[in-house]
Design goal:
Helices cover 41% and strands 14% of the residues. The protein is of the alpha/beta class and 259 residues long. Strands 3-2-1-4-5-6-7 form a seven-stranded parallel β-sheet, with helices on both faces. Helix 2 (46-59) links the parallel strand 2 (38-43) and strand 3. Keywords: NADP, Oxidoreductase. GO terms for molecular function: oxidoreductase activity.
């Protein structure tokens, strides 16, 4: 019997993490490295990429040659498809793609929303993974061992006032995942749907505002704690490893839907 049948499922595989310089993507990069994979991270600027690569290489010196990265601008509508293709060309043959990239959430009253605003609000979170899905199969090893994992959020299940743009964008990503799971089969396509997680997403808040958010979350979820990136990273690992899962959304939300 192979004593590493489960623990080294990702050994030797190549994982591209779009949005891997911080937050959930960075945690997924750490987890992938620890599970034996080679990791390529992408972010909006080369400076962010270089810093993240350096952090990973310092944390995992024995895996230094398994970490690299490339910048890719996903917010440019005119250049989006070309930028995605250029990234995939640089990355080479892949086994898994994780899309966790995000930009500042467009939280606006309905009366202020314009068509241009709505399109831009979905550029990084919806249109970018759409273009990744369009071209990914040419760069991925064939078969159900390979996977694409997208990222949404708890706003799908619990809408909030003024969150109509982020909410509808994430609902669209859920539909995109289901379509890609069929169109790209047997490559598997799934979603990680996290609730509130302590990442750089909240850096725009003051310390006091974030403290209130954390306290409110901890009082209103069964786990009694705000989610951490290393918690959510386990969901990305699972979806890469399980060749029997496609077309689903994994929720990692501290039990928030129970209360």
């Amino acid at each position: 019997m192979d004593a590493s049948k489960y623990t080294l499922k990702l050994r030797g595989q190549r994982v591209l993490i779009v949005g891997g310089s911080s937050g959930l993507g960075f945690a997924a990069a750490e987890a992938s490295i620890e599970n034996g994979a080679s990791v390529l991270i992408s972010s909006s600027s080369q400076q962010k990429v270089d810093k993240a690569v350096e952090r990973l290489q310092q944390a995992y010196p024995s895996a230094k040659d398994r970490v690299s990265g490339y910048a890719c601008n996903l917010s440019d509508q005119a250049g989006l498809e070309k930028n995605v293709v250029d990234l995939l060309e640089k990355a080479g043959t892949l086994d898994h793609i994780i899309h966790s990239a995000g930009d500042p959430l467009s939280i606006k009253p309905l009366a202020e929303i314009t068509i241009d605003m709505a399109i831009q609000a979905s550029m990084v979170r919806f249109y970018a993974p759409l273009m990744i899905g369009k071209h990914a199969a040419k760069y991925m090893n064939p078969g159900p061992r390979s996977s694409i994992t997208l990222t949404t959020g708890g706003i799908i299940d619990r809408p909030m006032p003024n969150w109509i743009l982020p909410g509808t964008t994430m609902c669209a990503v859920d539909g995109l995942m289901r379509g890609l799971a069929l169109d790209l089969a047997p490559i598997r396509v799934n979603i990680v749907n996290p609730g509130a997680v302590e990442t750089e997403l909240w850096n725009h808040m003051s310390k006091e505002e974030f403290k209130k958010l954390k306290e409110h979350t901890e009082k209103n979820v069964p786990t009694g704690r705000l989610g951490q990136p290393e918690d959510v990273a386990e969901a990305y690992l699972y979806l890469m490893k399980d060749m029997n899962v496609t077309g689903i959304s994994i929720r990692t939300q501290s039990g928030s839907l129970l209360k």
